[in-house]
Specification:
Elements (H helix, E strand, L loop, with lengths): L1 H8 L17 H13 L5 H9 L1 H11 L7 H10 L2 H13 L10 E8 L13 E8 L4 E9 L4 H11 L6 E4 L6 H9 L3 E6 L4 H11 L2 H5 L2 E9 L2 E10 L16 E10 L5 E10 L5 H10 L2 H13 L9 H25 L5 H10 L1 H7 L5
Parallel strand pairs: 1-4, 4-5
Antiparallel strand pairs: 1-2, 2-3, 5-9, 6-7, 7-8, 8-9
Helix pairs in contact: 2-3, 2-13, 5-13, 6-13, 7-8, 12-13, 14-15
Length: 376
Amino acid sequence: MEKILQITEHFQNVETTREHNGYYYSVGRALTIVILGSICGLRNPSQIHQWASHQKILSFLDEYFNITSVPCYSWLLSLLRIIDPKSLNQCFIKWAQTLLPKSLENLTISFDGKTIRSTGKMDSYKEALHIVSAHIAELGLTIGQKTVEGKSNEIPAVRELIELLDISGCVVVADALNCQKKTAKAIIEGGADYLLNVKDNQETLKKDIEDYIQDADLRQSMDNSATLEKNRGRIERRTAFTTNDVEWLSNKKEWESLSCIGGINRQVTDKKGTTSNEWHYYISSRQLTAEELLKYARNEWSVETMHWLLDVHFCEDSSRAEDANIQQNLNIVRKMALNSVKDYKSKTNSKRPLSKIMLDCLIECEFLLEVLGKSP
């Protein structure tokens, strides 16, 4: 019963945007229903309400969660609307910590933002909702998020998340947008190392690294490693180069604890035999080998996998919720659902896809209990 209590009790005291004394229905019970329905892969409140109203599910909710009734659909939406997303996010962060190992040493935390595209077309939103997430690549778990107005506000949001989360011992990876001196400093102050992609927004730094790595004589003295992948007729070769010789960098002192620079050459040959060739450049506070650079740089994209799952499994980009609170709260709950299934897969060494595990939860309530950590 422990994990069932964990996933529900962490959210019983969530705050609301206006006073609510539980008259008609409690926020905690409504939230529990939405969380459980999302773990079953249900895409929106309408589907969740229909599922929870079925007599079989009502009996299940009564037996294991002490939920004896389900609110009408309009009242379920009203309760989702008054839940304070900031408070729910704080509860989510605390709950996510219970899924993590004692030490996060050498794990990769990837920060990236995702825009809920449908909100950009609604009159009720000034700008499309943009949500920045922190994701642990090796575990497939999202550990925190922050909503901002537009992608341009992502940079300070990442710093706020870094200060909010325990990142000690990790390697923080981020795209070129977040290759910022203040962000690098915040990561070091948080007890982690950074690996940042350098592009034209740091023009001088990029040119210095590019000139060094593109010098054939200098490149021969660098550590190097390569990988080759074949997938659906496409061949991708990634070759990495790293060096700890960084004292010559003109603005090295401006970047907190900068200890390594590197580059990755990515060559992709498609089915037609056409080959593309591109370079990516990096700075890091950790003295990385070329093999480590390949690993951590690849892990940067793990958060994109989570974003893809939100779109594919929950059709988030097509969500029609006009209220920003509902959109944000559903986004958090969906990440909870993905975390729960990922945690189950990890603990059971299951090879089944997330979609099939979610479908199994929908078909059999007993299996939903297994995912929650309790045998029926």
